[in-house]
Design brief:
Number of domains: 1
Distance between the termini: 51 Å
Number of strands: 5
Shape: globular
Mean pLDDT: 95
Helix content: 25-40%
Number of helices: 4
Strand order of the largest sheet: 1-5-4-3-2
CATH architecture: Roll
CATH topology: Nuclear Transport Factor 2, Chain: A
Largest sheet: 5 strands, mixed
Radius of gyration: 15 Å
Low-confidence stretches: none
CATH class: Alpha Beta
Length: 141
């Protein structure tokens, strides 16, 4: 895939997340997909990733992901993005807060020649999100 095709694939995937289009997401993960940003109790597989997306969509129905920067190298693309939304339902054992959050994240995706996602590594500002949702005590001072 060319760098332009990789960027277009990332844009399409982020658009699908914003539309909560689980069918598109399912069709664009390889059968042997590996999630390296493991979540407690969720297998690092295609089915595990789909379970996480469904739980996220249910808990944060207004969640949006925005691509801020991309870097392509070989079969991988790094995406610096912004993830925001309002937590109106329980997520990963965290009770609904009704509060909004906006954090940055970094995703690295390995794509196959046909453009499907084969692997994902991710880092997100989980502590920042939990603070904004009121799930952490405020900092001292």
């Amino acid at each position: 895939m060319t760098p332009e095709e990789m960027r277009k694939g990332a844009e399409d995937f982020y658009d699908a997340m914003n539309r909560k289009d689980i069918d598109y997401i399912r069709d664009n993960l390889t059968d042997d997909f590996v999630e390296h940003q493991e979540m407690p109790g969720v297998p690092p597989t295609r089915e595990g990733a789909l379970t996480m997306f469904e739980a996220m969509f249910a808990a944060m129905p207004d969640a949006k992901s925005e691509i801020l920067d991309t870097v392509v190298s070989g079969d991988k693309i790094a995406i610096r993005g912004r993830f925001s939304g309002t937590q109106t339902g329980e997520f990963m054992g965290m009770p609904a807060t009704g509060k909004s959050f906006s954090i940055e994240s970094i995703d690295i995706v390995r794509a196959t020649e046909d453009g499907k996602t084969a692997e994902h590594w991710g880092i997100m500002d989980t502590m920042g999100m939990m603070g904004q949702l009121g799930l952490l005590p405020p900092p001292p001072g």
